[in-house]
Design a protein that fits this description.
Elements: E1 3-7, H1 12-24, E2 28-32, H2 43-48, E3 56-59, E4 62-65, H3 67-77, H4 88-117, H5 126-146, H6 160-176, H7 191-194, H8 196-206, H9 211-214
Parallel strand pairs: 1-2
Antiparallel strand pairs: 1-3, 3-4
Helix pairs in contact: 1-3, 1-6, 4-5, 4-6
Length: 222
């Protein structure tokens, strides 16, 4: 029986798991959780993830939630290609990047993108949304500055750092391109002008085999 992956369209945490599956070429059964239909709160799904969030994994009788936990599980059951390094130093450095991504970039991206996606950008929220966007760009600037060479963030091999940062970057770009965000004047678009190294890196991610299957389906509609 194939691994079952429960995911949400546009969720950066779901997307990182889907990217890992693509990189490792792991067969899986896709289970799209549609929030608009309340599927994340169904009794069946709450047995898999009582927090009613995505992503989640079911492998036979075993269930798991939280994206980083899932990435570690996939690494153990399908160790190649390795996403968390092969030495203590490599693993430590990768986890440092992943931790910075989740502790600093992810909250800023959420504070910027969600009000724009859900029509909550208004006079009372504008200051907080702008600050979140600026914080997100500050974190991306740090990545741009530290990314000196190699095809990926930590060298010529893709790692968990790449698949964690990429969906958040795309979230910023999508939200910044919405008409409602124009007045914020973040200046992140076009990406090639603001962050040329990250723009080239993103194209390499998008050229990975299986990438198209991971792209959020509702984003294709605009």
């Amino acid at each position: 029986m194939a691994i079952e992956i429960f995911w949400g369209s546009g969720s950066p945490f779901s997307w990182r798991v889907l990217l890992a599956l693509a990189v490792k070429n792991i067969p899986y059964e896709s289970k799209l959780v549609e929030f608009s239909k309340g599927m994340h709160k169904s009794p069946e799904y709450l047995k898999i993830n009582p927090r009613s969030k995505v992503p989640a994994l079911r492998d036979g009788e075993f269930t798991l939630y939280e994206s980083l936990a899932i990435l570690q599980y996939l690494e153990k059951v399908h160790p190649t290609p390795a996403l968390f390094g092969s030495t203590a130093a490599e693993t430590g450095k990768i986890m440092q990047w992943v931790s910075e991504c989740d502790n600093y970039l992810a909250p800023a991206v959420e504070g910027f993108t969600l009000p724009i996606y859900f029509g909550q950008l208004n006079d009372s929220t504008r200051s907080a949304v702008l600050e979140a966007g600026q914080n997100a760009l500050a974190e991306l600037s740090r990545v741009e500055e530290r990314y000196e060479r190699g095809n990926y963030l930590l060298g010529d091999s893709i790692t968990a750092a790449d698949i964690c940062y990429y969906p958040l970057l795309l979230g910023v770009l999508r939200a910044a391109g919405k008409p409602a965000a124009a007045s914020l004047e973040l200046g992140v678009l076009p990406l090639e002008k603001r962050f040329p190294r990250l723009a080239a890196w993103a194209k390499r991610i998008e050229a990975l085999p299986g990438y198209e299957k991971t792209y959020p389906p509702h984003w294709r509609a605009g």
